[in-house]
């Protein structure tokens, strides 16, 4: 008899994206946690996901975690850019192709000028996210880069119960391209294979009977990862996907984009469910 293979994909469950309550803002190493880009309601999302992992512990066969992993110097961080006065852009500044052509913004390293012109033109022509300057976040080896405690603890308990380990996929290390989705960068670079399409997540779906999806943020990295996956999957495999909608939330101000994404997914056959709707097996 065929054993049902259930996988759980958790996208970027890292401290920099969670609105951690004040009384929780100290980790085991006595380091203060100050999230760079907290998503509203994400701490409750983390609690619900942790409960889900605990309740489904016996039936989950694989856990895959993506980690947003950046350097201070990054195309979506302020120090990559400056205006003619040498000032860096404020967080949430949008930089268009025309802004660069007009000299409103240019890369601090002028050797990157041709790259950023091609980059922003490509984003705009392909309908990708506009280049936005995010608060500096998920710096490799920082507290903000680590998995939030409720989810980390739940995964560790699952690992101890099942005698297997999670699989981690790191994304975003290349400073010259954004990397929302877990499958490929927004602008894959010909000289860096880690920015090019990685079939791991599509393969995970093919090899599973059902795949639950969670993480942050619904409007960006969750949406981008799921869209990149389904782009490579036949319809029957798309139906294996379930977004645990009560464990993921949009970045503030991007609620409409998140809702539009959910509606697109429903139309394609992706399941949308609350953790409480999933039967314990």
TrEMBL record:
Q: Which InterPro entries match?
A: Isochorismatase-like_sf, Isochorismatase_Nicotinamidase
Q: Which UniProt keywords apply?
A: Hydrolase
User: Which GO terms of the molecular function aspect are on file?
Assistant: hydrolase activity
Family, per entry:
Belongs to the isochorismatase family.
In terms of PANTHER family, this protein maps to:
LD05707P (PTHR11080:SF2), PYRAZINAMIDASE/NICOTINAMIDASE (PTHR11080)
User: What is this protein's name?
Assistant: Nicotinamidase
